[in-house]
């Protein structure tokens, strides 16, 4: 046995590297968090939409690097996520460093199935330690398992870990330092399927594994939660509450963050004499930081609820109920939560795709999610719908404004599903269609520690990776909209009273670099009826869609830039063939609405896509396809409404 | 055709591996002189030095210079195939049913039940194994407690019956010196 | 003590050979909730990678599968197999040949 127990290979850093392998729901991530605490970093595997989680475990003054590989049922990969696991454990694969040892998490209640995966992992020849989870649940359900007999039969170390037990964890930690001491199996498990089955049977027999009786508690809960009537009602109630919390509970928190940074900005503006510097500090920098932090309440709440749903086992049930509907978009039930979250904001929506096991589904959902009507679009819709139809117009018994709003939400949702379908088709080219299977785990009480870890890592990842992008874009846009600066003399010679702040800001925007860009891109948007001032608004909305309203307000020299409707109705084209004509005709307003429905006017979304896919390629594709789609649909709308008017 | 469940377990000797199999798979115990097919060939070649059957295991010793990491898979395939022909396994010495019973009993006492008794300061020895009847002598602290005696006896008997289904009865006597009496709850069962 | 269990399990395994099954063409998707079946094999039309995955999930020849419940919309379906519960779509369940057992 000692013959192949050679020196444990060390990576360049000299630290021992361990990989965590296990099937979904086997307690792998809980173990990862318990071992590494908050010393984690996330990244992406090269070339795939698969997040990479790495952390450091400190054991007796030494550091051990632990990598949490994606959950898998088999080392025969059928998805990019599983390919990552297979590659990581393949010593011949140069792309991902092979670990020095492997921790395999095995759910004691599904031992029979899990031993198949373990057999495959054991064939890699790497040092292996089995971490047995959910033994307490096995006992509760009346099952038995002799851990020392299992250890003897497997020929590798087996450590039982009850989540939350410090003793168990300490025992495992003490083993992490000396991989060379881990027992190796005397003969690796067979590969032949029937021999493998015989091996599993023999192990279970030796370990005195008693089949856990049916989990009555889970069956009883499922009888209600998956009931055709009650289950459906509870599902809609849960999803309604879910949406309400992201949408309405987060809103006051977000307003609080926003107003805090607004007042900070005002404070700075008032106390810094140089107008350029004060504007930069107050609006660009502090405003930018506020623009990043404003997303945190939503993200924290979303991950609070997702980890509660996932930890309790309900997420699988919700997905089970929704699967048939999502299948029409080529997706699976679990994508529903991501699309629902996108109704509040695409940022948490795209982050929610992490709960999808298949990279292809994740990718397709991410591409569709930005089309769901987010709350930022809502402010734009309210403004433009007000311009388009008067509040008194009715369609049958309904107010026309409400009908238009409903139509916008509906078209957004349908377009999101259609897009996901198209991308799923494209991304599946060449490969076989993945089979759908979803484990229905026993109901379990979510552990507060796991929930807190999930929220923390989501917020941290967002601030770290996406925050910089949002901040940068905000600063650049502020500079474009504010520069060049104009002296009082210049303002007076242009007929603007330097004391009239509204007039000054309107003049500054009208003569900014952004205005130059607005003029320059006029030919592109002219077929949609947009003039250069709308273009400035569209450009400004890149930092966040709702900024469109304020920017347009500034351009229109509205007294209150947040409510520019009155000023906008009187705007006319300043030049070109339509000079003097009304700018916001029904055709232009409708085209603008449709443009906002489809365009990826949100750098934060692009940033989060960059983070989740690990490359700029897919955000670029998304921006490109959505722009083309937005332009085309807006053009069609402009033409059709223009004809019918 | 279904494959006989088995798995390898390491022993103190790196050349020797215990292949655990279900009790009752083979009708023999002890050293094996002839085994079917490929396993038989390996036994006569220079790969396998010795082959011995226990009640719940086949113990295989490889020749020096052969390693389990190299030869293990071949041995497994050969053993798996050989277990399908239990009648073709020939012991080195004639094995009687009494030998089978004694081996099964020894296996029980070497296993977890024996460990349990020893961990409580007790001691069990085989008195006789004859004609489907077996007798053990229990000594040590635990025999004074009737409940422990009953628990131990029934555990030993059920483990023995699992390995030797033809068992008629297992008698347990207390240590000599005191009045030797039969355990007060010996279940008389005739296997079907 | 485990040995007793083992022997009983082996005995309880139906020894009926495949060719005498009443309906050799029964598929897992045909079973109604509450029914059980024993997996015979995976249909040849199923992609090899999918067949392999079904095997790894526990839908191996000889495994006993019980239909637990259907989704309110009829698809997917929850099955109990090797001591755990897993949902499959009918498309996947239709690729698994089973022999009905009481």
Automatic annotation (TrEMBL), chain B:
InterPro entries: FSCA_dom_sf, NIF_FeS_clus_asmbl_NifU_C. Signal peptide: none annotated. SUPFAM superfamilies: Fe-S cluster assembly (FSCA) domain-like (SSF117916). Residues 107-168 form the NIF system FeS cluster assembly NifU C-terminal domain. It comes from the Bacteria. Pfam families: NifU (PF01106). May be involved in the formation or repair of [Fe-S] clusters present in iron-sulfur proteins. This is NifU family protein.
């Amino acid at each position: 046995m000692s013959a192949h127990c050679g020196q444990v290979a060390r990576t360049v850093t000299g630290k021992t590297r361990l990989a965590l392998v296990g099937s979904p729901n086997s307690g792998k991530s809980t173990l990862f968090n318990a071992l590494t605490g908050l010393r984690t970093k996330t990244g992406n595997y090269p070339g795939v939409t698969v997040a990479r989680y790495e952390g450091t475990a400190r054991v007796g003054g030494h550091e051990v690097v632990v990598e949490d590989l994606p959950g898998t049922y088999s080392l025969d990969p059928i998805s990019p996520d599983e390919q990552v696991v297979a590659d990581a454990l393949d010593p011949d694969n140069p792309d991902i460093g092979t670990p020095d040892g492997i921790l395999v998490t095995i759910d004691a209640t599904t031992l029979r199935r899990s031993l198949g995966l373990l057999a495959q992992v054991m064939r890699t020849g790497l040092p292996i330690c089995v971490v047995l989870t959910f033994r307490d649940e096995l006992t509760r359900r009346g099952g038995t398992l002799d851990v020392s007999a299992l250890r003897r039969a497997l020929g590798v170390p087996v450590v039982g870990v009850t989540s939350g037990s410090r003793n168990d964890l300490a025992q495992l930690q003490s083993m992490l330092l000396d991989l060379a001491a881990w027992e190796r199996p005397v003969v690796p498990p067979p590969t032949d399927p029937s021999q493998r089955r015989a091996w599993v049977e023999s192990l279970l027999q030796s370990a005195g594994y008693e089949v856990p009786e049916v989990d009555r508690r889970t069956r009883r809960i499922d009888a209600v939660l998956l009931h055709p009537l009650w289950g459906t009602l509870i599902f809609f109630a849960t999803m309604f509450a879910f949406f309400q919390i992201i949408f309405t509970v987060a809103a006051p928190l977000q307003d609080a963050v926003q107003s805090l940074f607004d007042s900070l900005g005002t404070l700075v503006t008032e106390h810094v004499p140089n107008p350029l510097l004060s504007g930069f500090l107050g609006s660009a920098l502090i405003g930018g930081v506020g623009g990043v932090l404003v997303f945190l309440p939503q993200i924290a709440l979303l991950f609070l609820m997702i980890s509660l749903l996932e930890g309790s086992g309900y997420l699988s049930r919700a997905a089970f109920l929704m699967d048939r509907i999502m299948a029409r978009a080529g997706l699976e039930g679990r994508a529903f939560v991501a699309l629902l979250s996108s109704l509040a904001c695409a940022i948490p929506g795209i982050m929610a795709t992490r709960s999808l096991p298949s990279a292809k589904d994740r990718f397709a959902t991410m591409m569709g999610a930005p089309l769901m009507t987010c709350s930022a679009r809502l402010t734009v819709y309210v403004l433009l719908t007000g311009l388009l139809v008067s509040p008194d117009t009715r369609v049958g018994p309904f107010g026309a404004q409400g009908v238009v709003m409903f139509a916008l939400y509906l078209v957004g949702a349908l377009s999101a599903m259609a897009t996901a379908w198209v991308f799923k088709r494209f991304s599946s080219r060449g490969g076989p269609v993945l089979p759908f299977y979803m484990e229905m785990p026993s109901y379990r009480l979510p552990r507060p520690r796991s929930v807190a870890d999930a929220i923390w890592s989501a917020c941290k990842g967002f601030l770290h990776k996406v925050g910089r992008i949002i901040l940068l874009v905000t600063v650049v846009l502020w500079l474009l909209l504010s520069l060049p600066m104009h002296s009082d003399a210049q303002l007076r010679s242009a007929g603007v009273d330097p004391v009239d702040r509204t007039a000054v800001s309107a003049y500054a925007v009208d003569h900014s670099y952004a205005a130059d860009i607005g003029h320059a891109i006029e030919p592109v948007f002219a077929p949609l009826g947009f003039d250069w001032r709308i273009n400035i608004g569209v450009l400004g909305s890149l930092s966040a869609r709702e900024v469109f309203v304020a920017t347009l307000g500034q351009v229109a020299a509205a007294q209150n830039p947040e409510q520019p409707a009155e000023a906008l109705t009187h705007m006319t084209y300043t030049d070109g063939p339509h000079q003097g004509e009304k700018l916001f005709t029904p055709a232009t307003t409708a085209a603008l609405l449709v443009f906002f429905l489809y365009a990826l006017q949100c750098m934060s979304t692009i940033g989060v896509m960059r983070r989740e896919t690990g490359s700029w390629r897919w955000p670029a594709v998304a921006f490109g396809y959505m722009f083309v789609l937005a332009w085309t649909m807006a053009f069609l709308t402009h033409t059709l409404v223009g004809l019918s008017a | 055709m279904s494959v006989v469940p088995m798995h390898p377990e390491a022993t103190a000797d790196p050349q020797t591996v215990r292949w655990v199999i279900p009790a009752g798979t083979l009708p023999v115990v002890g050293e094996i002189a002839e085994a079917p097919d490929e396993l038989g060939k390996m036994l006569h070649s220079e790969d396998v030095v010795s082959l011995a059957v226990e009640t719940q295991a086949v113990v295989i010793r490889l020749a020096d210079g052969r390693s389990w990491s190299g030869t293990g898979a071949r041995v497994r395939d050969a053993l798996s195939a050989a277990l399908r022909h239990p009648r073709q396994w020939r012991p080195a010495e004639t094995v009687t049913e009494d030998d089978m019973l004694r081996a099964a009993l020894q296996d029980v006492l070497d296993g977890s039940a024996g460990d349990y008794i020893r961990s409580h300061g007790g001691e069990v020895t085989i008195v006789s194994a004859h004609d489907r009847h077996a007798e053990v002598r229990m000594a040590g602290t635990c025999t004074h407690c009737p409940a422990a005696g009953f628990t131990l006896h029934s555990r030993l008997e059920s483990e023995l019956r699992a390995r030797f289904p033809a068992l008629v009865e297992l008698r347990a006597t207390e240590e000599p010196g005191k009045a030797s009496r039969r355990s007060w709850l010996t279940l008389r069962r005739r296997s079907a | 003590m485990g040995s007793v269990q083992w022997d009983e399990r082996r005995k309880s395994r139906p020894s009926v050979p495949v060719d005498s099954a009443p309906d050799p063409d029964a598929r897992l998707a045909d079973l109604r909730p509450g029914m059980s079946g024993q997996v015979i094999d995976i249909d040849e039309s199923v992609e090899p990678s999918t067949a392999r995955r079904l095997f790894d999930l526990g839908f191996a020849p000889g495994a006993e599968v019980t239909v637990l419940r259907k989704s309110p919309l009829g698809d997917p379906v929850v099955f109990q197999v090797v001591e755990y519960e897993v949902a499959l779509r009918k498309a996947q369940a239709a690729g698994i040949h089973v022999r009905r057992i009481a």
